[in-house]
Amino acid sequence: MLTLKAKLPARTNFVDEVHKVLLDAICEGTLKPGTRITQEEIAEQLNVSRSPVLQALRLLKKDGFIQDAPGRGVQVTPLQADWIDSLYEIRGALDVLATKLASQKRACIDPSLLVAGLAATESGNMQAIIDADLAFHTAIYRASGNPLIEASAHTHWGHLRRVMGAVHQVSATRSSLWEEHSAIAQAIGAGDVARAVSLSENHIDCAKAGLGNNLSRLLETHDDRTIEDVHAPR
Q1: Distance, C-alpha 20 to centroid of its chain
Q2: What is the pLDDT of residues 126-179, one digit of tens each?
């Protein structure tokens, strides 16, 4: 049975709110690949009409987070190994370019981002870890001086959040994550372009290697299921 833990307040336009609830659940791994959902279930649990639910589902479908399910309703799009590889290739290219440009400018990456990241990791809260990771890389994108990098990267970050959330279901966050971030920030600030780029490339390689080690278990979640527990935004 569908169980959403909070109802939305009475208002007329809920598309953004419904979209965020579902996207967060997909990205955090609460809604696993293959989970089947219907407009009626979501509308009832969130105490909204079916119209904003339908619009939110259309947006999620357009962005590739859900797809038509056999029979009635839709399901969370299964994760595919080749697709995940392609996603990380794009992310790696953008991260390396941003790191190169930022280090050429000797940009200062806010140290508080590293502090927040360590705190999130210690807390074990996956949403906080993902948010901190995104904030750190966004700072590098902005420091690059090329606004198209951030715009392009954020097109894919929703899917990266989803993969990271799914991986967290089968494996703990690697302990070296924020040490790698700290080293990248230092190299950027020092204007050491070669080292910064090398560290950035290694950072992505480590992320892909960790993902590869857990990919088989991760892809085992591709079965038909119903929604059991979707959380409203925290």
Answers
A1: 12
A2: 778 888 998 999 999 999 999 999 999 988 888 988 887 766 665 666 668 899
Total structural domains within the chain = 2
Asked if 218 contacts 166 with a C-beta cutoff of 8 angstroms, the reply is yes
28 and 143, same domain (yes or no): no
60 and 22 Cβ atoms separated by less than 8 Å: yes
Q: Which of 181, 144, 184, 138 is nearest to 161 (CA)?
A: 138
CB 3 within 8 A of CB 45: yes
Predicted TM-score (pTM) of this structure: 0.76
pLDDT reported for residue 169: 61
Residue 101 shares a structural domain with residue 63 = no
The whole domain housing 144 covers: 81-219
Q: What tokens were used for 147?
A: 């606004």
The two tokens of residue 169 are 């279901």
Write out 26-57 in H/E/C secondary structure. Answer: HHHCCCCCCEEECHHHHHHHHCCCHHHHHHHH
| Same domain membership, residue 170 and residue 134 | yes
Rounded to 5 degrees, φ, ψ at 218 are -65, -45
Do 130 and 169 share a domain, yes or no?
Answer: yes
Among residues 234, 136, 118, 115, which one has the least CA distance to residue 185? 136
Q: How would you class 131 by CB atoms within 10 Å of its CB: exposed for 0-12, middle for 13-18, buried for 19 or more?
A: middle
Cα separation of 171 and 210, whole Å?
9
